Prior knowledge:
By secondary structure, the protein is mainly alpha-helical. The protein has helices spanning 3-19, 22-42, 45-78, 81-115, 122-151, 168-172, 177-205, 210-245, 247-253, 286-292, 302-313, 322-351, 359-368, 370-385, 398-401, 408-437; strands spanning 156-159, 162-165, 265-271, 277-283, 390-392, 396-397. Helices cover 72% and strands 6% of the residues. Helix 7 (177-205) runs antiparallel to helix 14. It is globular, with a radius of gyration of 23 Å.
Amino acid sequence: MDALVLARLQFAFTTIYHFFxxxxxxxLSILVAIMETLYVRTGNETYKQMxxxxxxxxxxxxxxxVVTGIVQEFQFGMNWSQYSRFVGDIFGAPLAVExxxxxxxxxxxxxxxxxxxxxLSKRVxxxxxxxxxxxxxxxxLWILIANSFMQQPVxxxxxxxxxxxTDFVALLTNPNVWVQWPHVFFAGLITAAFFVLGxxxxxxxxxxxxxxxxxxxxxxxxxxxxxAVFVIFVGHAQAQHMVRTQPMKMAxxxxxxxxEQPASFSLLTIGDxxxxxxxxxxxxxxxxxxxxxxxxxxxxxxxxLQAEYTQQYGPDDYAPPLAWNYxxxxxxxxxxxxxxxxxxxxxxxxxRNKVELSGRFLRILPFAMLxxxxxxTSGWLLTELGRxxxxxxxxxxxxxxxxxxxxxxxxxxxxxxxxxLYGALMGVAIxxxxxxxxxxxxxxxxxxxxx
Length: 451
C-alpha cells in the first residue's frame, strides 16, 4: 500500500504498454508513405493496394497508441505532483509544443489521408501521409527533449525550490537528445520492418498473393537492414554518452562493482547483489572499447561511483536495481543483434530470389516480430531504471517526486483499473491485427470510398 511503490508500478506499466505502439507508429508511417510514393511514381495498382493494406494496420496501431498515451499525462498531476511542481516550467514547454503542434498536425493529416482517397489528387494525398511521417517523428522528438532533461538537465536555474528554464535553446540542443532520438527513430523503423516481414512471411507460406507480399517483403527487408545497422551504431554512441553523463547506469548494466582499466565485457555474470561473483564469462578490454573506442580506458565501478556520489550529493544508495539493469541491457543488445542477423539473411534471400522457397525462414519470421518489442521494452527499462534513485538526475530523487496527498489505496485502485482497461485494449488490438493482418488484401478489399 506504499504510494511511492504503487505510483512507480503504475507509471512503469502504462509507459511500457504505450511504448508497445509508439515505435510501430513511427516506423510503419514511413513504410506506408514509401509504398504510396511508389504507387504515385509508377501507377502500379499493387502499390496502392499495399498502401491501403498496411495503412489499415497502421491506423489500428495509431488509435490504440493515442488512447494509452493520454493516461500518462494525468499521472504527472495525480501521482507525481511534487515532480510536476519542480520541473513544470521546463517540462511543460516541450510537451505543450508536442500536443499543440506535432500531435495536432499528425492527427489532422491522418484524417485527411484516411478520408481523402479519390477526393484529393494523388500528389496532395501523398503529401498528407508524408506530413504524418514528419509530425509523428517530431512528436517523438519533443517528448524525448522533455525526457532528456530528466537524464541530463541543461538550461535551467533552481529558484525557490523549482527548476526554471533559463535557456530554451540549450533544452533543444541537449546532447542527450541527439543520441536518444536517432536511436528511437531507427528502433521504430526496425520495429515496422519486422512487422511487415512477419505478416508477409505468414502470407507467403500460404501462397496468398505472392506478388503483393513479395513486394512488401522486399520493402521490409531494406528497412530492416537500414534500421538494424543504424540502431546498433547510434546505440553505441548513446552508450558512450551514458558513460560520460550517467556512469552508474553503465556500471549497473555490466554488474561492474570495482573500476577496471582496461574493463572487460560481461557475457554472463552470476553472483549476489553485493559484488561477489559466483560465475562470470568476460571478454577482456571490450567494455573499454565500447565506452571509449579504445582497449585501455578506465570504466568506473559501482563502489567508486557510490563513494563519489555520496560525497557530492550526500548519504544514500545511488546504485540502481542491478538485476533489472543487467538483464535489460542484455535483452536489448541480444535482440538487436539477432534482428540484424535475420535482416541480412532476408536480404540474401531477396537478392537470390529465394524468398518463397525458404519455408523454414518464413516460418521463423512471424515469431521474430516479437524481437523489436523485447528490445524496445528492455531499452526503456534500462533508460529509466538505470537513472534511479533520481527522477531528474542530480536534482531530484524519485522518492521526493511522488504526490504527498494521494494515498496508497487510491493509487492501488487506479492501478487495478488501468490494468484491466489496458488488458481489454490489448485484446482488442490483437484481435484487429489478427483479423486484418491475415485478410487477403485483394479478395477482402472494401470499396475505395469506404476504405
